[in-house]
Every structure is written in structure tokens, then in C-alpha cells.
Amino acid sequence: MTMVNGWVDVHAHFTLPLTEEQRLRQWEGLRAQRFLAPQPFSWSPESAVDYMDRTGIAMQLLSNTHVFSSQAVSDSNDYGAKIVADHPTRFGLLAAFPTDDPEAALAEIDRAQSDLHADGYAVSARYNEVFLGDERLEPVWAELNRRRAVVFVHPNTIAPPQLGLPVTLMDVGFETARSVVDMLYAGVFRRYPDLTLILAHAGGALPAMSGRLSQLGAEPWVPNPHNITRDEIREHVARLYLDTANAGDDAPLASALATVPRDHLVYGSDTGAPCNTDETLATNIRALRDSRVLVEGEADQVGSRGWDLFPTASRRAGRS
């Protein structure tokens, strides 16, 4: 087992307890979408703590964006808050909110902080077909900006296969890029500079597309209602934070670090998702440790950087 020392994982998932029948139905649904998992997936707080103990991860910031109604979001956040209450030094909560219903989203944002004491927020890049630049989300981004919130963005993995392959393999990366570009041209980043976004999977396809965006994105043939400039495109993309989930190899790291400052790279694992195993998680950590893109000792800096983004979690863990 590849060991680290006191890293904080900003990209870890939880699921609500399921019956065996529910687990089997979930497994059959995944296989129907060409995600050919050999057996049903299970997660528990105890298994997550065991993994962290074996690996040297100090804390996981838990998120669950794969619920698709306002009530399901609230129920999920309640369970996530209970996990944190039961294990306050090992877990934090990134509370979800439903971006297809701005009023419900605002209510859940407030409840998550005032009642559940969440450490931050998590959203799906596409939630019930709503992308994050949708004009109806204006009051939501305004409120999160007022709170100087940290928001984790994860693509929707519950979708039909593409080219006979599960969306988890490739299409999730394009979805993240689409939603962030949607926000860019909607002027969200211009209006709300105090908003901090962390993108899953090193931003997916966004870093690879960032050069094309900065070269062509302000050309007169591009619909650009807010007249976002070429300089703004570069500046707004560079404000993003990117996590390392399934992106610890040098190719995605090089692209990420050509897009954002080095101190905007944070450790994420994607644990708690059926696409990962102990072996794939260890492979990703080894890739970070052996990277020729990162300088000596930088992998440990990446692993610890999330403490600065989530100060309440850091205090619970005795890190500040």
C-alpha cells in the first residue's frame, strides 16, 4: 500500500446506506450503462476510515452530487453531516444543492451552513440538464460569492454510454469543460471574484482546451454577450483549483499546471466511487510521487493544500 503523511482529500464520495436489493438494482443500472462492474459496489464510513488509516490520509471532504431531487439532496446532506458528527477529525462535508431549482438551492445552502455546519459545497456540472452558467443560477452564485464559498464541481456520471463506453471513462471530462466554459461566457467569474471553484479530475478536458479558448474565445465570430476578453479568459480559468483524481500522471498534470498556478493544484482521489479500487488509488498516488512535472517534495504540498481551503475542517483535524 502506498503511504502518505497527513494529506487531505478534497474529492471523496459517500453514499447513503442501501439494502442488498437496492445495491443489486444500482449495479444492474450501471451495467446497463456499459459500466461493467463485476459486482455491486458498497461504501461505509468504517471502510473509508480503514482506507485512510492504511494510506495515511488524514481527512476526506465527502460529497454526493448524484442525487436528483431537492428532497434527496437534503436527505443526503443530513446523512453526510451525521458521518462528520460521528467522525469529526476524519471527515468533512461538501454539501450538495439542487441547481435546477434556485430557491431550493438557496435554502439548502443556508441550511447546510447554519444547521449542518458544512465545510463547503458540491455541485454537479450538469444537474437535471441544467449547466452551471444557466441564468437562473444568478442569485445562487451571488450568495455563494457573498459567503466566499468553496464549491467543488463534479461531472454527472449517471448518463447513457457514448461510443459503447461508460461516460465515466471519457465524457465526464468534457462535461466539466462545457459547464465551466458556460459559466465563463455567462460572466459568472467576472461578477463573482470571491467564489472559489475546485474542479474534479484536474478539470477534465478544460486544461487541454484552455489554449484554444484563449486564442479564439474572444474572436468576433464567437457569441459573447458579455464581451469577455482574451485576457479575462486566461485570468478567470487561472483562478480555478484542480484536483488530482485519476489525473496524477504527468500528461494531465502538465496541462493543469500550464493552466492554473502551481498552488491551485490540490489532492483528490475519487474514493467512494465504483470506478476506483485500492490499486487505482495507489497508482495515482505513486504517479504524483514519481512525477517529473512536480518538483521534489511538491506532491506532499499538493496533498496538504486542501487544509488552507477548508479552515473549519483543518481546525477539527488539529491542523491549525
From TrEMBL:
Keyword set, alphabetical order: Hydrolase, Lyase, Metal-binding, Zinc
Keyword Lyase listed: yes
The EC number(s) this enzyme carries: 4.1.1.52
Pfam families in the record: Amidohydro_2
Domain Amidohydrolase-related positions: 8-270
GO terms (BP aspect): secondary metabolic process
One GO molecular-function entry: hydrolase activity
Membrane spanning stretches: none
GO cellular component: cytosol
Catalytic activity: 6-methylsalicylate + H(+) = 3-methylphenol + CO2
Protein's UniProt name: 6-methylsalicylate decarboxylase
Organism of derivation: Streptomyces griseorubiginosus
